[in-house]
From TrEMBL:
Listed name of the protein: Leucine-rich glioma-inactivated protein 1
Keywords from the named record: Cytoplasm, Glycoprotein, Leucine-rich repeat, Repeat, Secreted, Signal, Synapse
Subcellular location, record wording: Cytoplasm; Secreted; Synapse
Domain LRRCT: 187-236
GO cellular component labels: cytoplasm; extracellular space; synapse
Signal peptide residues on this chain, from the entry's feature table: 1-27
InterPro entries linked: Cys-rich_flank_reg_C (IPR000483), EAR (IPR009039), EPTP (IPR005492), Leu-rich_rpt (IPR001611), Leu-rich_rpt_typical-subtyp (IPR003591), LGI_related (IPR051295), LRR_dom_sf (IPR032675)
Family matches, as PANTHER family: LEUCINE-RICH GLIOMA-INACTIVATED PROTEIN 1, LEUCINE-RICH REPEAT-CONTAINING PROTEIN
Pfam families: EPTP (PF03736), LRR_8 (PF13855)
SMART domains reported in the protein's UniProt record: LRR_TYP, LRRCT
Amino acid sequence: MGYPGRAQGGWMLLVWVAAVSLLFAEGRRVRPPRCPVGCTCTKDNALCENVRSVPHTFPSDVVSLGGCTSLIFLILLDKSPFHSFRSFVKSGFNEIVGASFVHTPALQLLLFTANTLDFIDEDAFLGLPHLEYLFIENNRIASISPYAFRGLKSLIHLSLAYNNLETLPKDVFKGMEALTKVDLRGNNLICDCKLKWLVEWIHQTNATLDQIYCSGPPIYQGKKINDLLPHSFDCMTAEFASYQSLKFESISVGAFTFGDDQYIQDIDILKIRKPNDIETFMIDGESFFVIADSSKAGSTTVYKWNGNGFYSHQSLHPWFRDTDVEHLEIGNKPHLILSSSSQRPVVYQWNRSQKLFERRTDIPDMEDVFSVKHFKVKGELFICLTRFIGDSKVMRWDGAMFKEVQTFPSRGSMVFQPVSIGNWQYAILGSDYSLTQVYQWDTERGQFVPSQELNIQAPRAFSMVSIDNRVFLLASSFKGKTQIYEHLLIDLSN
Ligand SMILES: *[C@@H]1O[C@H](CO)[C@@H](O)[C@H](O)[C@H]1NC(C)=O
Ligand SMILES: *[C@@H]1O[C@H](CO)[C@@H](O)[C@H](O)[C@H]1NC(C)=O
C-alpha cells in the first residue's frame, strides 16, 4: 500500500467510515447503522464531511449489530478550495483525545489516514480490549502521551508510519503483550538518550519492526536504529548538589571513621594561621610524613616513625618557601613533588639503598605554584598545579618528565583538587574572586571539560567522603560556610 503524500492533502475533512468483514449471525435481521450527522452512509460505510471529532453515534449503532468485528475509520483530507488549512486546525480535530472509542468496544481494527493529526492523548483507545490492528499513518503526529495506548491488550499490529515523531515516550508500548509488528518508518527519530529505551525494547521484544533510521544526532544520522546497541548510549551524567552548610569557616576539611560512624573534621582557622601541608605515606613498610615549610629559612622535612615516635629523617630544599608537598608513585617508585613560592616545582625520587629522597627533575615554566595534586586515569599519571593568579595547569607524566596537557585561567585560586568518584574524574578549581569551577574528564578528548560552577566563599580544600553508598564533597571555606555537596548520578534515558 502506498502512502499518500502529505503535501497533497486538501482542506476538506472527510471521514470515511467503512464497516468491513461484517459477520452476521445466521437468520439475524440486518439493521442498517444510524448515520451520524454530516455523513452519508451505505450498508457498509459512511462518508462524512467536515466532522470535528470522531463521531460517537455511528459506531455504537454499528457495534450494536453484534456481528461487526472491525471498523475502518479512514479519515482523509481532500483537496478543496473552500477550506483553508488554518480554519481546519481551528476546528480542533488535530488530536485523538482520550476515550474517543468507548462506545465501540468490539472494534478490532482502526485506520486513520489523514494529514492533520498531531497528538495522541492519554487513554485515546480506552475501552478497546479487542482491537488488533491500529494504523495511524501519514499524519503529523509529533507527540504521543506515554499512556496513549493503555489498555490495548490484544493489539497485534501498530503502525505510526510517516508521521513527525522525533521521539517516543519511554515504555509507550508497555502492557501491549500481543504486539507482533510495529511500523515506525518515515519519522524523524532522534537517537539520543530519550530513545535508549526503544533500542532496549527492540532487543527484548518478540515483535518485528520495519527497518528504521536515525535522523540525528549527527553521530547516529542515517544509522539503522535496529542495529544500535543499548550500551552504546552514554546516558549517565553526574553533578554535585548542595546538601548542607556548616556554620563555620575552615581552611582544611577531611573525613575519618570512628567505630561505625563517619565524622567530618574541619581544621578551624583560629588554630592554624598558615596553611601548611602535611602528607603521610609508607615506604617498604615504614611510616613517614612530610611537612612543607613556607617560612623563609625553613626546610621541608621528612619524618620517620622509629617505633616510639616520629623523628626527623631528612631535610629537603631549604630556603625556598615551600607551599606544598605531594607524595606519589612514579613508575612504582616513591616520589615527592615540592612546590614553592620562589621557584619551579621540584621532583624528588626515593633512593632505596640510601633510604633518602634525591632530586630527580623539576617542572619547567611553572614558577610560583601554590600546590600540586596527582591523579590517575587508565594507569596514566597526571598532576594538577595550582597558581594563585595566572594559569593553573594539568600535566601528564611522559616517562621522563611532566608535560602540559591543559591550562586553566586562575583568579585567586588556592586549590585545584583532582577528585575521583567511581569512573568519574573531576578537577575542582577554587577561586577567591569568582565561582569555583568543576571540570570533568572527557575520556575521548583526554582533557577536562567544564561541568559545573559552585558558589563557595574563598575555598581552601576539597575532599570526598562516602557514607552508606552516598558520596559527598566537602568544601572548606576561608570566609564563609563550609559546604557539603552530594554527588548525584543522573540517567538521561529516564
Ligand atoms: C517471547 O516469546 C517467548 C516464547 O514464546 C516467550 O517466552 C517470551 O516471554 C516472549 N518475550 C516477550 C518479551 O514477550
Ligand atoms: C642511590 O644512591 C647510590 C649511592 O649514592 C647511587 O649509587 C645510586 O645510583 C642511587 N640510585 C638511584 C636509583 O639513583
